[in-house]
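YM 10:42: Interleukin 6 cytokine family signal transduce sequence, as discussed on the call
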Amino acid sequence: MGSSHHLLVFLMFLHYAVGFTYNCVKILPDSSSSIVVEVGKNFTATCHLLEGCAYTSDDIEWRLGNLSIAKQSYHRINETAVSVTINISSDMSDWLKCTAPKESLSYKPRSIYGIFLRAGYPPLKPKNLSCIAVQEDKDISPNLNCSWDPGSRNPLIDTTYTVYANVLGTVLTHKADCKQHLARFCIVNLETFPIHMVLKVWVEVKNALGSERSELQNDSSYFAKPNPPLNVQVQVKFPTSLVVTWKHPIDRTILKLSYAIRYRKAASDVWIEVRVPESFTRGYIESFRLQSLEPYTQYVVQMRCIGESNSSYWSNWSPSVTERTTEAKPASAPDLWRIIRPTSNSRNVTLIWKAPVKANGKIRFYNLSINQNNEKFESHNITADNLSQMYSMELPAGKMASIEITAYNSAGESPKATLSIPRSDKELPGVKDMSWSVRDEKLQVKWTAVLPLPHPLKLSEYLLEWVKIPQSVHQKELPAGWQRVPKNVTVTTLNAGLEKFKRYNISVYPIYKYQPGHVWHFQPGRPVTRPAYVQQGPPKEGPTVTVTKSKKNSAELTWEETPLDSHQGFIIHYTIFYAIGNTKQWKSETVGPNVHSYVLTDLASETDYVVYVMASTEAGSVKGTDCTFKTMKYGDGEVEVIVVVVCLSFLFLTVFIIMICLRKREVIKKLLWPQVPDPSDSSIAHWSPDFPIKADLPKEDVSVVEVDVFDGKSLCEEDKGVLPLKKDKYLSEEHSSGIGGSSCMSSPRHSVSDSDEGDSGQTTSSTVQYSTVLGSGYKGQTPSHQPPAFARSESTQPLLDCEEHPDHLNESQSRSSYFRRGRELEPGVLAPECDGGSLTFCPVQEEEPSPVAEEPPASALCYMPQKSGYRPQ
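YM 10:58: structure's back
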């Protein structure tokens, strides 16, 4: 520790040990500085009461820092001494104090004494001591760099490291003090590096708890580290060897060296090291030949050197030198394979090949020979180009072909590679139980061999082929990759950089060989193919769903399979999610990976739905686009049923109405066309008493009966008194007609018999029926011998002035009364009031017509027209 720390400890010691006038206690062992104690061991201190002290041993108390020590650690020696034993831990660097408080003597100052304890560890022995003197220019440096391992334990107390070096046989020892805490290295200066002498080096470590030492002794060349060989070069003279040359980095009088050469292929990380024989070193030779190399291969070469006397320090490696051996003719045949695509009437064969593994040079071209059924022979020289190492041809299904290919470089030709393509119906058997798995992000393929083999075939090897599935259905297959494995292997890993999330077709072919002559022929068997992924992921995109048919309670969905390059794995299932409108209460249905249509059922009618399809692989899922649709209001056949029911109902109703109309046609005719008399058809407007009735009057559909109303004999007795009035009335009615028909006759009026009852002065606009005696046939018809009939006429024509004011009528001569013929006739009834010999025409009353009363006298007949009319036929 520094001087400041010692000063602090000294002042604290004075404070506790000297600072009190009445202090009467003391601790043994005692020190003016801190007392170093070893961690993990017990430490015992004794507190003594000085002579004349008023305290006893029972008043002594031990404290470590501010904490009291348990009484169980105390040991009472006598009346004036008490010891304490504590186990030292790494955190016990503090004051150990002894106090003697006596409450009965509280008027005296309190006695206290303390010592400072420092916990620590003894030093550890340095390990792995090594010292190096590096080459500087043409000599070895005098600075000796030594390093060691001090251990992982912190001593907690001051510890010093010192390095010593001594050349045996001399008294001079070189020393170097290491100032670092837990020092790991130090440099000792030897002033001059000893050549061909024994050097002893040691390191010493000390602290208050002990010391340790490590040493190293060896020839001085053991400590020397030379520089790498100089001017290393490589010369090319032969296809299988390289000559390496160099220069010595230091003079042999200072340090004798041994050399090592290492080399590797430029495409490899594996080094091969060769030690230069000692005979080369003794002869001071500066070259060496590397042999058994591969032709036309690039090599990387380096050198290093070391002291000849088993020095422990090699020089660094020299800078790399790269050189290529010369060419030799190819030592292996090209790797020939084929891809067969059947067509309608033939086979498209694509021949592909790889350069020989031992090409021993740059391949210039290939010679390809094709023999079809020993009938057609072709030979092609194809320039070696990575883009054109394939050849396509057409091979009929019923023909076989034998293919040979040879590679050429500048030194010569390679062995031949042969391949046979049999007829389509002559395929050889394939392997069984082929499967694959993923191991360390590579595909591992496993299969079972075919046993027994067909005679005379022999199994030569297996070929594994992988073909990337096209990016789209319109893209052709890419050329295949392949590798061969020995015939005794049935499990292998594909040594190919297969892309993640891409589908490959993995095929296993057994390759058979047979020898019909002196040359072996090779023919592949039937392949077994499985799709595979080296790593799967969730699909890139989901399917697009469309609704092809929507019904009342169901909807048919269809979706197309997404492109293979967007699958990124095997589709394990599709999940259909659908919900009503914006409710987002989703329902789902799961279908298999080969299903691309589905019918949703139990849907609500006339409802908007949202639907989408989610595609899933074992690595994840992705949803497709949303599609909305609306279910129909009516189901299949419901509209047709409704239309049929309505049409049948309408038809039945129409038929029913027609039948009713046919049965009630007269009633309907009266309701639709009421029988209204037409005054213009009446002949009474053209009648005059001065003119006789025309002979063709019956043709006008009018019958007239002449009655002498002034004949007193023909009148009823009760009507004689009112005769003048009636006479004037009828005359007035006759001359007031001016519209073609008798308005007076068409006006409502009452009979003379009614005037006796005081009703003759009444006028009304209601319909009054009039009767006319038909004297001749209807429209030229011959009247039958039936009783006289009467015609009835209904009219709503208003009364004329002569009818409304009868007092102004002038008397006129007696005239016969003519009445318009009605369109319907009914037999009249006798009026009971009449008893004269003339006919009296009585207006029809509104009451129901009465039946025939008692028969009147023969000299007088009275007819009452009925309310209902009769149309003559």
